[in-house]
Model the fold of this input.
Amino acid sequence: MHYLDHAATTPVPAEVAQAMMDVLTNQFGNPSAQYPLGQEAKKLTDRCRATVAKALGCKPERLFFTSCGTESDNWAIHAALWQGRHVGRHIITTSVEHSAILQPCKLLEQQGYEVTYLKPGRTGHVTVEQVEAALREDTVLVSMMLVNNETGCVFPVQETAQLLRQKKSRALLHCDAVQGFLKVPCDPVAWGVDMMSLSAHKIGGPKGIGALYIAESLRNPRPLLPGGGQELGLRSGTEATAQIAGFARAVELRMENHAEKLAKMAELKAYCLEKMLTIPTMVQVGRGEAPHILSLSLPGYPSANIVTDLGAKGICISAGSACHKGKSSHVVSALGLDKRTAAGVIRLSFGPETTTEDIDAAYEALREHKEKRFAML
Done:
């Protein structure tokens, strides 16, 4: 198998699986229990929180574990609206956010909130100037992803935080960093981001565990789940200790020789782009800077057919976000591509495990797909 869909999910290293197995079999206590087995589980959770927080550059007590990036995004939105309930009912986001942001925003519009969706240019980027033009006195939230999951474009989160400070805006800034964490610079504390969402399964961790960073400046944020008081009373429910251990171990592994891993992914992306563009009519979609995502198109060749054909040969790529399940991507639609180009968009994404052999196999399969389809016309 040649796996080139790391933006959808990532392989779980054996060390991560072993860390989880050890918790499941040996350290299975409830962290809220007072006897030694439970207190050891609490210490483990605290150590894991510190590990993830250190990689993010925040204090451990400002990082809260959730079940996934989607939960973190939803929590951030509703916490921000509660925090700014006396400020107004205007939200700014982009038209190319993950569905975990866009769908809640659509529901909020039905409840009387007004949402401004910033549209990217042809390269896939949005600008801080667009944020400034949309900003109002009654803006309560700006939610902007760090890295777009389909184009790999890096968005101006740091600059947006600076803008909000300069304008003395009362709007809170949330950043969905699910695709950006440990892939591009990511420093919510130094930047002045109010909330930031993470997910473990994009960096070699297990599915079913994410996190939300909440800045110290947000005093008494609204709890997501009232209950037994876990996560400082903000997200109650028995801690998923095995997934938390897997998250932390994945972070540790990614941080080993981190710069070299990023450089390798960037080199693979450049190699892949150069090779793929030798296929007649193949074009790059967007100009994403993230080292692990490359969006391309074979105009006139439906992406669903490409993904199916390559999948039958053991080559895993996607036609965009895995969350779309084969439907047209709102990201592609927002780029204003012509219909033939939009219909042929595919995404290849890389990880530390990716090799040039994986890319070569995808190249040959794409070339053969094009030749076969052309011969049938």
Remarks:
- The mean pLDDT is 95.
- The domain at 2-10+258-376 is CATH 3.90.1150.10 (Aspartate Aminotransferase, domain 1).
- DSSP finds 13 helices and twelve strands in the chain.
- The longest strand covers residues 90-94.
